Amino acid sequence: MKNIHFKDFFWNSDLTSTGGYDAIIQYLNDGRRTCKEVEDFMKARAAVEEKYAKDLLGLSKKVCGHNEMNTLKRSLDMLKLQTEHVSLSHLQLAQGMREEAKKLEEFREKQKEARKKMEQQMDAFHKQKSLHFKKTMDSKKMYEQKCRDKEEADQNVNRNTNTKHMEKLSSKAQNAKQIAEEADKLYHQNVTVVGKIRDEWQKEHVKACEMLEKQAMERINFLRNTVWTHLNQLSQQCVTSDELYEDVRKSLEQCNVQEDIEHFVNLRQTGDKPPAPVMYDNFYSGQRPPAVAPPTRLLPPTMRRGPLPDPTNNTEDAIYSTVQDDGYSVIQY
After folding, report:
1. Does the predicted model carry a pTM greater than 0.85?
2. How far apart are CA 42 and CA 33, in angstroms?
3. pLDDT tens-digit profile of 100-109?
């Protein structure tokens, strides 16, 4: 396939028209605007990454598993540590994005400066070309008018039958002829000048098309590479984050449930024997089982009561309950 070029497709039939050149300039202006938009996009993405990094850094400083112990605590500590490392990697990513955006800005400004001189030269050529073309067209109109005046004077001489006015008409015709010849000469000179200007402008137009085409190609290539680098940075960040998270996963693989349980038992155990059962103690029985006093509280000393009163003794006005069964006992086994 044959390559196409700006210089072959941006001409106009009207010498004073700048439509083709203007179309190319508009295309490059749009391209420069695209560069600025991509630059702003990357700066905004860098700001997002920086904010995310700072939020992650703050999160890594928060309490997480402070009261945990042994292998699970080590895993949680590793999670916080690697979260901090991920935040730092996102800060580096943000800085890298800003550097790429800066390169794009410098490229955009460099192209702008390179075009400035060329555009000034082309604007001068366009003004010069339009001015001389107008001057040539004006001289053409004057030339045509003088030619018509000459023809009219010649016709007056030919139509005249009065010899009295013949000399005057002949003089007038001769004067008209001279003026027409001068107008013709001026018109011819202007055509020659505008032809030279046209040739020079065509050469400069071709040079401008080649330069602008080169800039357009460089811009497309630079933008493509910039976006490619941007995506590589994002992909590398994913790889880096996964490598850091892999350290947390490896730590979790070392987390042993039974080991953590045993660690807690060994560290905080309080005893291996449960408390003794609570026994029934009859208030009237002299054979009270020894009570187990709480470890931190001592019971006050108690006084043993005297023997039980005889229920058959009626010397006092007291009534006692009696049980007829000889095998009855207040202590049950």
Report:
1. no
2. 14
3. 999 999 999 9
